[in-house]
């Protein structure tokens, strides 16, 4: 039986957050990037909930609920944005969206 | 006569000039205005000035000593006060009278000469502006106000020489005149500033200057006198600043007559006479001036002997006659010099305008060796030119004889025998080259027949008036020795210098000698040119024809050196140092920007990475700082 301590939650959250960051930086597929972002949000949620339990206060859990609600709303916006981006360029590769690039030489 | 009318002598031509300028701008941009309206205002202004000047003259005759009018203070700084002031004493009213009279005549002549020209209104606007400047120069009551007029006439001279500015040569001539005048103006300005430095606090009009000039140390006075004379050299075309005057003949002929013969060039003589109280204290500088004048007169006469352009000959003769005037004022005989200014204005304006009429009649031909036999074609111009030529040659009883002879007499009396000799020799040369011009133009044989252009009466009438003046103007300075009253000397008593006594027989002898010199010149010209054969080729080369290569020497010594300096500044300093510094700075900024711009790669994942790095380092910083 593995002992579950407070620090294990924190470690798990850090690992999830790091995976999320690496996902955002290294992947090209917009969906995967989005999923990585959600992963990072949820790792933060985990920390909030763990801290809430640790300090015996409900504040953290309330914030976690709010984050989840906002994440749900955000998912709607994000997915619809991805759809319209796809209609624009027929691609879900993040590197194809480079209209603001510095072009040519001065 | 209320003395505030003095200002109107200057203001009428000035307003007229502005009005004509506005009318001209309206005429070329909105709706054409007929020439007669321009003519009306243009001719009215100098005549009105002459009329007012004449009223002042009558006032002076009736015993008024002088008129002063100071309408307002122009500059007043810490006790130094410069008033805008007008001074109408015997000298300035004398100048006003003949400037406005000759000016009116030349205006009438110009209305015929310039008929149908596109720039008719512009021409008269400049002409009236010139009259205003010249009259301001003459009527000013302090050297600083005089300087305004001094610069004004220089400006008008420049504008009128380059009147036909589509021709590059005219523009070059205009620039040359302006630049040569600037050299002189600098001298004049230095003189004024020195004077102001020493006596400026005590008041700076001529009256105060005359009272206090003696407090200036003598060696400073010499500097002032020479500096002012350098200004006069520039304006009155004396050695070495004479080079602009012959080139100034590029302008229309009335300009040559008005500015470069009758009025503006005498400004230098007037200025020396105006500062007579200063030059009286430094007689050595006066002798220097007289020598410069004598050599200028000889030098210009020698060059004039070989020229072929009718206007250039007259230009050199102007330099030569101005030399005589400087001989007189240099020797302290200011009234004699001004007498010559007066007679010279008549006969030189007459000669120039006659030459202009000849040029018009021959469809703008200026080379005398392409003329010939004009006596029967234009008899009126022939006869007035004969009067003018006799006057300048110093043949009695024409006006030039009296004034020139008096100058030679003064030189003799001051024991300046070298100057006297030069003057006498130059008188002979003058008679020679003027009659050379005259005979070649009007006599000769085998000349080419050509169709003449009609010369209008508006051009002929002033010629007749001036011819009468050139013939008889000398009698107002009729020598006392013949029982006459020398009206000029009486009128300009304060300027007549030390009276000279000479025995009757010696005087008669000197006069005969100078008349003889003139007659010898005429007879040499007669034998060489009266029956001039136009089939022979003219030699257009030689040292004298090329004016002793003075232009080339100046070009080599000064113009090219300045050009080299400019090239040095443009190539080495500007391109090599300044441009290089500025360009390398701006290139540095461009390169930096290019490098920074590369970060703007539109690579979203890279942005995310930058953000991570930034946030992490900021967090680490916070943790380390707050963790303590």
3D architecture notes:
The complex is a heterodimer of chains A (106) and B (628). Chain A starts with 5 loop residues before the first helix and ends in a 17-residue tail after the last helix. Chain A is elongated. Chain A is mainly alpha-helical. Chain A has helices at residues 6-26, 30-55, 59-89. Chain A has a domain at 29-90: Helix Hairpins. Chain A is 74% helix and 0% strand. Chain B has 2 domains: 142-545, no CATH class; 552-626. Chain B is built from 23 helices and 2 strands. Chain B has helices at 6-29, 35-61, 90-113, 120-139, 143-161, 168-199, 206-212, 218-235, 244-247, 253-262, 267-274, 276-281, 283-304, 310-330, 334-361, 379-393, 399-413, 417-442, 457-472, 487-491, 504-529, 550-598, 604-626; strands spanning 67-77, 80-88. Chain B is globular and about 125 Å long. The model of chain B has no long low-confidence stretch (mean pLDDT 88). Classes of the chains: A mainly alpha (106), B mainly alpha (628). At the A-B interface, helix 1 of A face helix 22 and helix 23 of B.
Structure characteristics:
heterodimer, A: 106 residues, mainly alpha, Helix Hairpins, 3 helices, 0% strand, B: 628 residues, 2 domains, two-stranded antiparallel ribbon, 23 helices, 2 strands
- Placed side by side, the strands forming the largest sheet of chain B appear as 1-2
Overall radius of gyration of chain A: 18 Å
Spatial gap, N to C terminus of chain A = 65 Å
Rounded average pLDDT of chain A: 88
User: Total helix count of chain B?
Assistant: 23
CATH class of the domain at 29-90 in chain A: Mainly Alpha
CATH topology of the domain at 29-90 in chain A: Helix Hairpins
Give the proportion of residues in helices of chain A. Answer: over 70%
Total number of strands of chain A? 0
- Can you summarize the main beta sheet of chain B? 2 strands, antiparallel
Shape of chain A: elongated
Order of helices and strands of chain A: HHH
Q: Would you tell me the structural class of the helices and strands of chain B?
A: mainly alpha
- Cα-to-Cα separation, first versus last residue of chain B: 102 Å
Average pLDDT taken over every residue of chain B = 88
Strand content of chain B: under 5%
Task: Tell me the number of helical segments of chain A per DSSP (H or I, 4 or more residues long).
Answer: 3
Q: What is the radius of gyration of chain B?
A: 31 Å
Poorly predicted residue ranges of chain A? none
Poorly predicted ranges of chain B:
none
**Helix and strand pattern of chain B:** HHEEHHHHHHHHHHHHHHHHHHHHH
């Amino acid at each position: 039986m593995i002992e579950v301590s407070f620090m294990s939650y924190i470690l798990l959250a850090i690992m999830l957050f790091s995976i999320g960051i690496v996902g955002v930086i290294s992947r090209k597929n917009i969906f995967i990037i989005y999923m990585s972002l959600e992963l990072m949000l949820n790792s933060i949620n985990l920390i909030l909930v763990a801290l809430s339990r640790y300090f015996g206060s409900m504040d953290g859990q309330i914030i976690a609920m709010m984050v989840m609600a906002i994440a749900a709303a955000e998912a709607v916006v994000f997915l619809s944005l991805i759809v319209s981006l796809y209609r624009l360029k027929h691609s879900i590769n993040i590197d194809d969206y480079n209209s603001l690039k510095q072009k040519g030489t001065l | 006569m209320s003395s505030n009318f003095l200002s109107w002598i200057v203001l009428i031509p000035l307003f007229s000039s502005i009005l004509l300028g506005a009318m001209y701008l309206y005429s070329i941009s909105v709706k054409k205005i007929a020439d007669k309206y321009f003519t009306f205002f243009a001719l009215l202004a100098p005549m009105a000035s002459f009329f007012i000047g004449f009223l002042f003259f009558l006032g002076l005759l009736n015993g008024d000593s002088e008129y002063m009018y100071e309408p307002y203070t122009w500059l007043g700084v810490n006790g130094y006060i410069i008033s805008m002031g007008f001074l109408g004493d015997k000298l300035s009213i004398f100048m006003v009278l003949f400037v406005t009279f000759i000016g009116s005549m030349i205006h009438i002549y110009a209305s015929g000469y310039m008929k149908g020209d596109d720039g008719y209104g512009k021409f008269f606007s400049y002409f009236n502006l010139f009259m205003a400047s010249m009259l301001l120069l003459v009527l000013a009551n302090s050297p600083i106000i005089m300087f305004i007029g001094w610069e004004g006439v220089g400006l008008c001279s420049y504008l009128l020489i380059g009147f036909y500015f589509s021709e590059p040569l005219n523009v070059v001539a205009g620039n040359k005149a302006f630049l040569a005048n600037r050299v002189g103006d600098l001298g004049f300005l230095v003189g004024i500033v020195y004077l102001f430095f020493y006596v400026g606090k005590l008041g700076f009009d001529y009256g105060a200057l005359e009272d206090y000039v003696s407090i200036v140390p003598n060696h400073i006075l010499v500097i002032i006198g020479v500096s002012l004379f350098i200004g006069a050299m520039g304006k009155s075309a004396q050695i070495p600043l004479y080079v602009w005057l012959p080139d100034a003949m590029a302008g229309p002929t009335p300009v040559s007559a008005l500015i470069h013969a009758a009025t503006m060039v005498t400004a230098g003589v007037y200025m020396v006479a105006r500062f007579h109280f200063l030059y009286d204290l430094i007689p050595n500088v006066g002798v220097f001036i007289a020598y410069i004048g004598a050599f200028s007169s000889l030098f210009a006469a020698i060059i004039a002997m070989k020229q072929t352009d009718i206007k250039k000959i007259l230009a050199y003769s102007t330099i030569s006659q101005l030399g005589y005037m400087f001989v007189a004022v240099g020797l302290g005989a200011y009234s004699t010099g001004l007498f010559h200014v007066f007679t010279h204005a008549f006969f030189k304006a007459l000669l120039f305008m006659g030459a202009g009429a000849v040029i018009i009649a021959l469809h703008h031909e200026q080379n005398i060796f392409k003329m010939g036999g004009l006596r029967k074609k234009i008899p009126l111009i022939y006869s007035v030119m004969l009067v003018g030529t006799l006057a300048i040659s110093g043949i009695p009883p024409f006006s030039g004889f009296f004034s020139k002879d008096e100058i030679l007499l003064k030189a003799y009396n001051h024991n300046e025998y070298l100057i006297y000799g030069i003057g006498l020799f130059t008188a002979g040369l003058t008679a020679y080259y003027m009659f050379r011009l005259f005979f070649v133009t009007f006599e000769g044989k085998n000349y080419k027949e050509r169709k003449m252009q009609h010369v209008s009466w508006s051009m002929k009438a002033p010629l007749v008036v001036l011819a009468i003046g050139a013939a008889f103007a000398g009698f107002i300075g009729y020598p006392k020795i013949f029982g006459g009253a020398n009206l000029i000397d009486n009128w300009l008593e304060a300027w007549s210098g030390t009276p000279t006594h000479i025995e009757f027989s010696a005087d008669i002898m000197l006069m005969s000698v100078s008349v003889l010199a003139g007659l010898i010149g005429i007879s040499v010209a007669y034998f060489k040119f009266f029956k001039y054969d136009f089939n022979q080729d003219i030699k257009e080369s030689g040292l004298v024809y090329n004016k002793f290569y003075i232009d080339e020497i100046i070009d080599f010594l000064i113009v090219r050196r300045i050009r080299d300096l400019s090239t040095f500044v443009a190539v080495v300093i500007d391109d090599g140092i300044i441009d290089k510094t500025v360009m390398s700075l701006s290139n540095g900024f461009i390169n930096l920007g290019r490098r920074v711009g590369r970060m703007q790669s539109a690579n979203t994942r890279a942005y995310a990475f930058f953000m991570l790095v930034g946030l992490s380092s900021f967090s680490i910083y916070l943790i380390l700082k707050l963790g303590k």
